Amino acid sequence: MGIISVENSDRLFWLGRYSERVYTSARLFADSFDKMIDMDLENYAVFCAQLDIPNIYCSKEDFCKRYIHDDKDPNSIYSNLMRVYDNAIVLRNEIGSEPIAYIQLCVYDMKRNRTASAPIVGLQKIVDNILAFWGIVDDMIENENIRNIIKTGKRIERLDLYGRLQADRESINREIHRLAGRITKTNLHYDKAKLDKLRELAEQDPINYDEIVALTDTLRKD
Amino acid sequence: MKDFELTRQSETVNELLARYGVKFGIYKNHEFKEQLFPFDTIPRVIEKEEFAYLEKGLKQRVMALNCFIRDIYGEKKIIKDKVVPEEFVYISSGYLAACDGVVPPKGIYTHIAGIDLVQGKNKEWYVLEDNLRVPSGASYPMIAREICRRSSPDTFESNCIEDNRYYTKLLRWMMDYVNTGGHTVILTPGRYNAAYFEHSYFAEKTGAHLATGSELTVENDYLYFVDYSGKKEKVGAVYRRISDEYLDPMTFNEESVIGIPNIYDVYRKGHVALINAPGNGVADDKGIYYFVPKMISYYLGEDAILQNAPTYLPFYEEDRKYVLEHFDELVLKDVAEAGGYGVVFANKMTAQEKEDFLNLLKKEPRRFIAQEVIDFMDIDILEDGVRKPRKADLRAFVLMADEPMVWKSGLTRFSRNPDSFIVNSSQGGGFKDTWVLSR
Amino acid sequence: MKNLRFHYHMEISFSEPVHSHIYTLKCLPVTTGTQLIQECNYAVRPTDRIQESYDSFGNRMLYGTAEEEHTLFQVDVTGRAVTGICDADAPGEKTDISVYKYQTVLTKPQGRIGKLLADCRKQEGSMQLSLDEKARFYMQTVHERLEYGKGITTIHTTAEEALALGRGVCQDYAHVMLSLCREDRIPARYVVGMLMGEGESHAWVEIYDGMTWRGYDPTNDLVVNDSYIKISHGRDYSDCSINRGVFTGQAKQCQSILAEVSEE
Predict the structure, then answer these.
(1) What is the pLDDT of residues B110-136, one digit of tens each?
(2) Interchain CB distance below 8 Å, C63 and B220
(3) What is the CATH code for B310-372?
(4) CA angle, residues B396, B397, B401, in degrees to nearest 5
(5) Complex ipTM above 0.85?
(6) Measuring CA to CA, which of A50, B234, C241, C246 is 20 to 30 A from A3?
(7) In terms of Cα–Cα distance, which of B39, B6, B4, B46 is closest to B148?
(8) CB neighbour list of residue B307: distance below 8 Å, 6 or more residues apart
(9) B172 interface with A at CB cutoff 8 Å
(10) Which residue segments constitute the domains of chain C, with CATH numbers given?
């Protein structure tokens, strides 16, 4: 009926954010894991520092296992995927059974992947399904507002991650531009002054990444 | 029955059911878990003529039940005429004094009835239970059919089977019929409810809005849905999947946090339809069940087409005597319990249990009903590729708008345990599709 | 017959501000066979919306919402009543009597009430008591068995528990008497109202004698007369609760009631 409650607009937003978090962290993990194969056994410490998550891991093996699968670790890919699922499952009305099925498949793949010796291969399925989810969201959901809220969540999360990872100016600029284009199409409450400030920050030299992250996280008002 | 191509596709079908998250929630050791609802590909098949007979009987039964509820909360003629003893009404936990004198939109109480039937070895159908509060389960055969058709199109091409996927159309038509003006909402207690999948699936398929109590608000005698920009939209029908008790903390359980304060007052003034009507529990009480055939002749002047399982009320002297004499042949049911709980087979009791039970029965005869154990007709299920006979029941769904409509399908539940008669999903059962043949 | 003025005041104070406060009140007296409410005004503060309705027992209800933050919620009801028009209330045709025959969660008897009834029956012996005499007898028995004491029982205390404690307030006296009457197959209902000289709201019992409802006050061992103004009735306390509310905010609430009844 085209009405979205406060609770559900919030869930759509976080569905976007967490799906992006799972997607990007799975890809970043793959890069990091690759480096650890040859030489840099401690590369996971750098990884944690970059993403600003506590390094609670005691070895490369421990990291690989827990960062992907540990349901007690709030920063694990598993925990973030469950947040995607928790938001998606209550949005059947807004996004539909077909899109939700892809999130459901991610959850099954994640559980199946627990015992695999090549975690990157397993994560690939999750990345595939998230991409399929985003694709079907674009293709099937008629309500533009719903699409825009999900995408706003996704854009905010990506800018946040890029800020933490200190991505190059070009990437940051592109993400700010994409976010600005999206959030203005929704009815979400956001701080326009902060959006302008973000644009300004991206031009400064050197880029103040901390401030970009801080502004991104508080851009949307409840 | 010959093997269908479909039965060879069991794995594919169950994989697809998992893909669409066809699950129910369950609490184990206080922890919420989602479980897949095991599906068996061998369908229950009901011939066209046989279903026509069931359909007639079900319509009649639900019509009478609706009359009964209207009467109980209105003139109470059936009590005055001493067809139903008044204590069975007033002591029933499903009787709600707050419903007295309240007439729902279009006079409909039993919008959705789930009637549980079993078929005896003698081919006779018996009604085991009427569910008139929030019967669940129609979504499962509906989505299973969708998936079976995809997995094994040949099976459906070569058999004439009534398509059951129109259930949500019936549902929508019924909801629109009673709507008092405004949007239609499916009210869910939330995703930690056992049947949450069904709530969200029906919302998607009917186009109704899925909401929790906190998203709805009462203002000036009307019910509104509030969207995130603060805009209020009037609601005219609520298919509520929460029980009467929790519906409105201002009238019923004061502790409820999943209901909508004062929604009952809006309903009382006729400004919203509640599906099903509050207070229906008075008619699907296990004690009242005994009287349904009497209701049919009382209100409709007809003989009951569908029979009850032979039932005795220890409340009546004569029946009590029978129960004591034939105790070992009977199954005893506590009228206050639901979901397969509070059901005991006398022949499985130890001597001590029997003694305790008989004492309890003498003390609280109103609390129990006794039934003959029906020799169910078994239905095959596939277990590791082998056909095995199991007990199964059928929940038929009857929707009531200007007249009762029987869904040409139903939920067939089976017990996975070969020794058990209890088919409830909460106790580990599985389900089957129900095919009604169109030729 | 008396001409009475009444002022009923209820307030709830909250330890912290609350908002989105939704309430339902049953505190408006209605005209019955024994009393005529000539005038009745109410004020609820704060409130944004207020609606009126009747519940299924025939009690008059107010319900609404106070959206803004507040720490005090007040209800005032004032008016004039003529009481003692008749000494019993004949029910309208639509009134369901049977609903008052059966025990509820709060009145359901266990051993103690059963024993009390047996004691009563022994005392009655072969005396052929009229229904009125019987009710007076039960009223007197309850009055003797319980000692008035505040803060010992709560709104959830059952008749059986109150009898075991031997102490309670008007609500407990009424529940024990209801339980006795119903156990003896006399239809009986719980009544909330006001009483001259009482200062707070009061509760008593009405029994149905086959034609009319008659009031008995076991707390005071008095047959209800023209000093009483009735507000509501139901099967037990929970059908008549004066105030129900839900609100947003972490606050302790404290309710106080003042009921003044005086002759004009």
Answers:
(1) 999 999 999 999 899 999 999 999 999
(2) no
(3) 3.30.1490.270
(4) 150
(5) yes
(6) C246
(7) B6
(8) B124, B125, B126, B127, B293
(9) no
(10) 2-85+242-263 (2.60.40.2250), 98-239 (3.10.620.30)
